[in-house]
Amino acid sequence: MYQENNGFLEEVFDMRKILKIIVAPFVLVLILAVAVISFLSCIAGACCGLACAVFVLLAICGFFAGLETGCIAMLVLAFLVSPFGLPAIGGWLLDRLYGMKYALQDFMFS
Fold first, then answer.
1. Degrees, nearest 5: CA angle 40-43-44
2. How far is 61 from 79, CA to CA, in rounded Å?
3. Under a CB-based contact definition with an 8 Å cutoff, are residues 81 and 52 in contact?
4. Residues 22, 100: contact at Cβ < 8 Å?
5. Secondary structure (3-state) at 14
6. One pLDDT digit (tens) per residue for the chain, 110 residues
7. pTM: predicted TM-score of the whole model, two decimal places
8. How many whole angstroms separate alpha carbon 110 and alpha carbon 100?
9. CA angle 87, 92, 94 (to 5 degrees)
């Protein structure tokens, strides 16, 4: 009875080793992807901040020119490229990638 369970446990440990070998390339790809995407997200955030300022200035100019619909459209675009719009969604997705990377690393080193 004891030796049957011992053989089963050895098979489970062997399967975990095989899974760790299979997961290793995915961890490497995630490490590189998260680093590159994090860098690009930082640059995109700065560009979106500048675009937000431009859209707000255009909306103010449109308001004084009497173009209400153009003003509203520019303010909506300014919100989308502001740190509360699309960059926030990108940051949320990047956090999910970080979580997946750390979960796979924990599995690899356990």
1. 85
2. 17
3. yes
4. no
5. helix
6. 455 566 666 776 778 888 889 999 999 999 999 999 999 999 999 999 999 999 999 999 999 998 888 899 999 999 999 988 889 999 999 999 999 999 999 998 88
7. 0.74
8. 15
9. 90
